[in-house]
Design goal:
Elements: H1 2-15, H2 28-39, H3 48-72, H4 74-88, H5 94-106, H6 110-121, H7 133-162, H8 164-182, H9 189-220, H10 223-237, H11 247-259, H12 270-300
Helix pairs in contact: 1-4, 3-4, 3-8, 4-8, 5-6, 5-12, 7-8, 7-9, 7-11, 7-12, 8-9, 9-10, 9-11, 9-12, 10-11
């Protein structure tokens, strides 16, 4: 059932663009601020306890609806799973936005392309992008490699493990982390504790799917180059403590770029920069196919529902 739900959700993602407007996640930031405001006078609920309340309330609602619908008719529960998964993958796939950016570039629509690029990379940086092409291309490639994991593969992983609750849990955690990044530096102790709790939760949830995503990048690209980069990344992570760049993100970027051999063959002109973006998108597409294939084999073997 998980495989079928995933396939249907991916098809809906591609064939129904009007759905994007119905999958807004803008409610998450005001929701978590509303909860924290009401917990502000209770010091013991700051940090991790407050995060648990924020996360558990939607998950309890999803679990309750899932149980009631399954009890009524399992088909309704299946449809509800598809709805939650499709919503969690929203509001719009960054890979599709990257394709639209390339189309705008090829048609000479420079202003629209810059606006689209800033929208795409807003998940990793809130600062305006420089005008030089290499920096913009590098930022887009890094965002695609990261968001293929954050907005797609990790969500599919937790959907298989925990059902619709797992998909919603991971997406909610990612949005809370990005909300903290957008709001700038923490100004008080409660903010520091809360952001630290979000980072820890994201680290735990991303550890396994992040490494599976990096492995799929390696297998679908140049495995030898990716393996070498993986070893170097592991050594570097023992000597650095960069909270602004999660370890899973650094791993995904390094392995993705190494598997495409960008370190050995960096793009030089505009055409090569656009080709590098296309190669990255193709690598992410092949990785998704690999995940679906493995899940199909596991389903046939009876190891997955």
């Amino acid at each position: 059932m998980s495989l079928l739900a995933i396939l249907i959700s991916l098809i809906l993602e591609k064939l129904l663009p009007p759905m994007h407007s119905l999958r807004s996640l803008a409610w998450i930031e005001p929701y978590h601020q509303w909860i924290r405001t009401r917990l502000a006078s209770h010091k013991k609920w700051q940090g991790a306890p407050g995060l648990l309340i924020i996360v558990l309330l939607p998950l309890i609602g999803i679990a309750t609806l899932q149980y009631l619908l399954n009890d009524l008719l399992i088909f309704f529960g299946f449809i509800f799973s598809i709805i939650v998964l499709t919503y969690s993958l929203g509001p719009k796939d960054k890979r599709q936005l990257a394709h639209e950016y390339l189309d705008a570039e090829e048609h000479g629509d420079t202003d629209n392309a810059k606006s689209m690029l800033q929208n795409i990379v807003s998940c990793t940086t809130s600062t305006p992008l420089p005008e030089d092409k290499p920096t913009r291309t590098r930022a887009l490639i890094e965002c695609v490699l990261i968001q293929t994991h954050e907005q797609l593969l990790a969500i599919l992983f937790w959907f298989v493990i925990l059902g619709p609750m797992g998909a919603a849990l991971y997406r909610l955690t990612v949005e809370l982390q990005q909300a903290g990044q957008r709001s700038g530096e923490a100004t008080n102790t409660s903010d520091v504790e809360f952001r630290a709790a979000v980072i820890r939760l994201h680290y735990v949830l991303a550890w396994i799917p992040g490494r599976l995503t990096a492995l799929s990048y390696a297998v679908m690209g140049s495995f030898v180059h990716a393996l070498h980069a993986w070893q170097n990344t592991s050594l570097e992570d023992t000597d650095t403590n960069d909270s602004t760049s999660p370890q899973s993100h650094r791993l995904l970027v390094r392995i993705g770029q190494a598997s495409l051999q960008f370190d050995n063959k960096p793009p030089q002109d505009d055409t090569q920069h656009n080709d590098a973006i296309r190669e990255t998108l193709e690598l992410c597409g092949r990785s998704l196919v690999a995940w679906i294939t493995v899940l199909a084999l596991m389903t046939l073997a009876g190891w997955a529902g």
